[in-house]
Amino acid sequence: MLKSVTAHFEGRKSRGDITVTKNGLEGAPIYALSAPLRQRITSQGAAELRIDLRPIMSMDQSRENVARLRPRESQSNHLRRLGLSPVARGLFQEAWFDHRDGLDLATALHNVPVRLEQPADMARAISVAGGVRQAAVDSGFMLRQRPGVFVAGEMLDWEAPTGGYLLQACFSTGYLAALSVEKWLTRHAG
After folding, report:
1. What Pfam families does the database record attribute to this sequence (predicted)?
2. Mean per-residue pLDDT for 6-17?
3. How far is 4 from 53, CA to CA, in rounded Å?
4. C-alpha pair distances (Å), 128 with each of 10, 16, 135, 173, 189
């Protein structure tokens, strides 16, 4: 796990923990950036996310730490001495070999490129994009084209955060839709 990192994409950033799996990356920072990442992957076939492995440390602090490293030690030892977890070291080394781009070690630690080529398939999805568009429902979550049919939660097209926020949004829209159902039934009973 990458603890307390910052993910950057197209001028947006999100901080938190990222889990690295054999299939890719998961976690709040990825979910927060999922819409623009997905759009880039769809339009260009891939997206390059940048991860700052040391977001609480300034560039000057990172440079000072790197300057204290013993020059004859391996890069693996340097990364270990800098306090990177085994997962962070592995991700960094993979990116470093592919994208050195003339960056010094301190700068590279704040700017690790990760190429993303596709979102997880539906079987692995926690939440998915798409659904009923906002314009298709009224303020009570009833479908404009199908009176008496109401939608809520993940049936709606919105970029839903995962976890407690997602659950709260589903409960809240469900509650409001239920109130609307009750009003609609009262008006149309009989």
Report:
1. HI0933_like
2. 96
3. 8
4. 21, 21, 19, 17, 36
The full set of domain ranges for the chain reads: 2-116, 126-188
DSSP assignment of 136-158 equals GB-TTSBBTTSTT-B--GGGB-S
2-9/47-52 β-pairing:
antiparallel
Contacts of 2 (CB under 8 A, 6+ apart): 17, 18, 19, 20, 27, 51, 53, 85, 87, 88, 91
Provide DSSP, 6-57: EEEETTEEEEEEEEEETTEEESHHHHHTHHHHHHHHHHHS-EEEEEES-TTS
Q: Length of the chain, please?
A: 190
What's the rounded Cα separation, in Å, for the pair 84 and 2? 9
pLDDT digits (tens, 9 = 90+) for 76-132: 888 999 999 999 999 998 887 655 555 688 889 999 999 999 887 766 666 666 789
Residue type, 68: R
Give me 121's structure tokens: 């398939």
**If we measure between CA atoms, which residue out of 19, 45, 23 comes closest to residue 31?**
19
Tokens of 164: 């407690």
